[in-house]
């Protein structure tokens, strides 16, 4: 029992957990942008760079299928229940079993793949595309093992409510990658592209090792020390079997999503050579706020929902979800409105220049305009899925995902058939939005049923309607300011767009907040007060 008392889950509020996760995600996205800028300038679109990108996608596929999402959603609810029940030794034994199982399975796959590539390498053209892929993959493929084990560590830290520590780890890949690029720029400028990317591959592998080492160092610092062991008898029943079943279903769901992405890309390629890149540029802008806010909330909400369901406290589960739903709508609706109203300005600021001309701006703007309409729907999908994961109903979410993918495919085909060529890619974006809305409505319908938790949805739709008044006021204020009050003639196009977007965001944000306080005073002051209490300067105003 003495060893059990050393493990202390962190007593961290929901808001602070979301804030820490969001901040580290924001840092990661900024570092990722720097990484992409440096990479593009060093390697361009060469054959070697294409081979490197393909090689990196292989271990990244393991991360998407078995890592962060599937492994975390399968492990955290079970592990959280055991920790809440003070069954620390059982939790350690469960973690040791899953660690050994993941290491064994992924390790064997990696070894077989490495052996196959080593055998095939002498039979391909030296310096050719396949030779580059095999060479880079032999270095980076072990990254898959380390990143999946790091994802397991993230699940343990999340179950212990150490969200800030787990969220920081995503920055290590970007830090190692950027370090490798700087090393190449200062010390290997005269080297060939092949050699530069060969060296960079080792930095990617080092990033995997760093993430693995960091995660498990933090886990041990929390007092959660366990021994990896593969006990086959424990996989036949109990918590270990539950985690494995949910992991398989989670991997299946992730696989379905990846197939859907592949189908979307194939359909986009039928439109024109520009369609895939146009949708990709638009997606990056939409996923930025969604990753910072919605993904952070989905990560943090899993813990309180699991605790509520494990104790049978449905009221607490409903309260947690409703609070998250309110917070998400309040943040995402104005962001969506800004993206829609100033879609051209956003694209000009971020992308325009060089080969990215006015025609590219128009094409990306059309895709981004429709994708921004679905920002709230995408975020709500991320928020409601943990409701089912907390109840260990991962298989059910996979079934709904399959329905969404089929529906999305039908809408994609329809948009390609009926829309003009220059708008077909926008139709693909709109199809994704409609399928996301349909998916959320399906999730909500079943979540309200008693055998799926009995989510109390009364008032959620009314909140959405009430928030439309502040949104309309914000959009009107932004239009008036940017149309009649800004003397921006004479500046460059990018500077004009930046002034418009910045002024609209500041004025619109102030108007939105004031309108929110007037129309939803209790909710607005509650949310403001909850975060202001964390600041010593403002704490005395919200006693």
What does the model show?
Helix content is 81%, strand content 0%. The protein contains 22 helices and no strands. α13 (314-341) packs parallel to α19 and α17 (394-418) runs antiparallel to α18. Mean pLDDT is 83; it is low at 1-5 and 535-543. It has helices at 2-5, 14-43, 47-66, 68-84, 88-120, 129-140, 143-159, 163-168, 171-187, 193-221, 238-271, 275-310, 314-341, 343-350, 358-373, 375-389, 394-418, 421-447, 460-484, 493-519, 521-532, 536-539. The two termini are 40 Å apart. By secondary structure, the protein is mainly α.
Regarding quaternary structure, what we see is single chain
Count helical runs.
22
Q: Please count the beta strands (DSSP E, at least 2 residues each).
A: 0
Query: What is the strand content?
Result: under 5%
Which structural class best describes the helix and strand composition?
mainly alpha
Q: Low-confidence stretches at least 5 residues in length (pLDDT < 50)? A: 1-5, 535-543
Question: Could you write a compact summary of the structure shown?
Answer:
This protein is mainly alpha-helical. Helices cover 81% and strands 0% of the residues.
Protein topology:
Blueprint: H1 2-5, H2 14-43, H3 47-66, H4 68-84, H5 88-120, H6 129-140, H7 143-159, H8 163-168, H9 171-187, H10 193-221, H11 238-271, H12 275-310, H13 314-341, H14 343-350, H15 358-373, H16 375-389, H17 394-418, H18 421-447, H19 460-484, H20 493-519, H21 521-532, H22 536-539
Helix pairs in contact: 2-9, 2-12, 3-4, 3-6, 3-7, 4-5, 4-7, 4-11, 4-12, 5-6, 5-7, 6-10, 7-10, 9-10, 11-17, 12-13, 12-15, 12-16, 13-15, 13-16, 13-19, 14-15, 14-20, 15-18, 16-18, 17-18, 19-20, 20-21
């Amino acid at each position: 029992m003495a060893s059990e008392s050393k493990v202390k889950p962190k007593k961290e509020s929901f808001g602070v957990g979301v804030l820490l996760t969001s901040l580290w995600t924001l840092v990661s996205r900024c570092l990722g942008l720097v990484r992409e800028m440096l990479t593009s300038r060093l390697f361009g679109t060469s054959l070697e760079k294409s081979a490197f990108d393909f090689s990196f996608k292989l271990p990244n596929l393991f991360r998407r299928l078995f890592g962060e999402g599937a492994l975390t959603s399968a492990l955290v609810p079970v592990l959280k229940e055991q920790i809440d029940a003070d069954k620390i030794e059982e939790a350690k034994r469960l973690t040791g079993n899953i660690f050994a199982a993941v290491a064994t399975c992924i390790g064997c796959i990696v070894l077989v793949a490495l052996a196959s590539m080593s055998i095939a390498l002498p039979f391909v053209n030296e310096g050719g595309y396949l030779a580059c892929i095999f060479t880079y993959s032999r270095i980076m493929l072990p990254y898959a093992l380390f990143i999946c084990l790091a994802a397991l560590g993230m699940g343990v830290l999340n179950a212990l409510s150490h969200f800030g520590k787990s969220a920081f780890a995503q920055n290590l890949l970007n830090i190692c990658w950027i370090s490798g690029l700087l090393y190449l720029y200062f010390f290997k400028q005269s080297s060939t592209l092949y050699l530069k990317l060969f060296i960079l591959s080792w930095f990617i592998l080092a990033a995997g090792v760093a993430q693995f080492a960091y995660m498990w160092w933090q886990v041990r610092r929390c007092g959660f020390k366990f021994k990896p062991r593969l006990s086959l008898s424990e996989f036949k029943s109990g918590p270990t079997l539950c985690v494995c079943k949910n992991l398989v279903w989670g991997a299946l769901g992730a696989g379905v999503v990846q197939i859907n992405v592949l189908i979307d890309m194939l359909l986009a390629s039928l439109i024109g050579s520009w369609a895939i890149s146009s949708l990709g540029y638009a997606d990056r802008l939409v996923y930025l706020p969604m990753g910072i806010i919605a993904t952070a909330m989905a990560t943090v909400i899993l813990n309180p929902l699991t605790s509520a369901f494990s104790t049978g406290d449905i009221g607490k589960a409903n309260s947690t979800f409703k609070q998250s739903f309110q917070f998400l709508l309040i943040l995402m609706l104005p962001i969506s409105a800004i993206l829609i109203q100033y879609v051209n300005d956003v694209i000009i600021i971020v992308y325009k220049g060089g080969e990215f001309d006015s025609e590219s701006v128009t094409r990306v703007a059309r895709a981004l305009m429709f994708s921004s309409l679905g920002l709230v729907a995408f975020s709500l999908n991320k928020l409601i899925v943990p409701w089912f994961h907390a109840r260990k109903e991962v298989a059910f979410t996979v079934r709904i995902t399959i329905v969404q993918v089929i529906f999305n495919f039908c809408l994609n085909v329809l948009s390609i058939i009926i829309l003009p060529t220059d708008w077909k890619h926008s139709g693909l974006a709109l199809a994704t939005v409609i399928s996301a809305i349909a998916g959320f409505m399906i999730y909500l319908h079943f979540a309200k049923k008693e055998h799926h938790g009995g989510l109390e949805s009364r008032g959620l739709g009314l909140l959405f309607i009430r928030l439309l008044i502040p949104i309309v006021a914000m959009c009107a204020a932004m239009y008036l300011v940017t149309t009649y009050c800004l003397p921006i003639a004479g500046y460059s196009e990018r500077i004009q767009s930046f002034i418009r977007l910045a002024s609209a965001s500041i004025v619109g944000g102030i108007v939105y907040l004031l309108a929110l306080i007037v129309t939803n005073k209790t909710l607005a002051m509650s949310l403001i007060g909850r975060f202001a209490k964390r600041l010593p300067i403002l704490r005395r105003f919200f006693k």
